[in-house]
Amino acid sequence: MSVKAKKHLGQHFLTDETIAKDIADALTENGYDNILEIGPGMGVLTKYLLQKKVKTTVLELDRESVAYLKDVFPVEHLNLNTSKEKFAIIEGDFLKQNIEEIFNKKQVAIIGNFPYNISTQIVFKAIENREFVPEFAGMFQKEVAMRIAEKEGSKVYGILSVLTQAFFDVEYLFTVPPTVFNPPPKVDSGVIRLIRKKDYSLPVDEKFFFRVVKTAFNQRRKMLRTSLKSFKLSDTLKEDPIFARRPEQLSVLEFISLTQKLAENGI
């Protein structure tokens, strides 16, 4: 039995066992008792996750893949160190799931070979649920992985970089070629790891911070005094040196400082 990759679900099944193990090993297993794998497909990554000490739950939208996983990983045939309580299969769309309810407010690491078409949305959902997500690792389109991990001063540094790095420490681990997938994608992939910061709250209003970052990067080549003109900056505020810089030049901490300046001026 095998599963046919479905284009509308963005499925590209990883076929290289070594890479699958390397992705699984990206998890530190520190600070949580649950792993959630998104889009396991035919389970090439799942088998290595099941060797971990913590419970593995797989979440799959494709019914054919769910049937395959139940056939290949029946609970009674799992490794001796894996009990029924340590493995679960859920059929559904990750973007519509309530992580807090599924894991009863317990800490969970997220991992997967993420479908390119929803990978950014997966990251934003992890950010929204960061109270319960101390770690996040997986494979993205290389361009997206680099964007998440990039620091200020780079052309690919942007909204996704700032909003992710405000709450997580990001490490780009390795690049994966198209040849190890079936069917092969048209681009390289990249594997990254996110580890939640010890202090993952902001000293400013979170919604306002998100708004400032997104507004600034809507005109990334303009100086902030121009890209943030919708905030109706006073002439005095415009004289602050930070407004003579472009958004891609600001670090996460500087974006927090910028948000504070705006809030202090009643914006």
TrEMBL record:
SUPFAM superfamilies: S-adenosyl-L-methionine-dependent methyltransferases. Its main location: cytoplasm. This is Ribosomal RNA small subunit methyltransferase A. One of its GO terms (cellular component) is cytosol. NCBIfam families: ksgA. It catalyses: adenosine(1518)/adenosine(1519) in 16S rRNA + 4 S-adenosyl-L-methionine = N(6)-dimethyladenosine(1518)/N(6)-dimethyladenosine(1519) in 16S rRNA + 4 S-adenosyl-L-homocysteine + 4 H(+). Residues 19-198 form the Ribosomal RNA adenine methylase transferase N-terminal domain. It comes from Polaribacter reichenbachii. It is an enzyme of class 2 (transferase). The gene is rsmA.
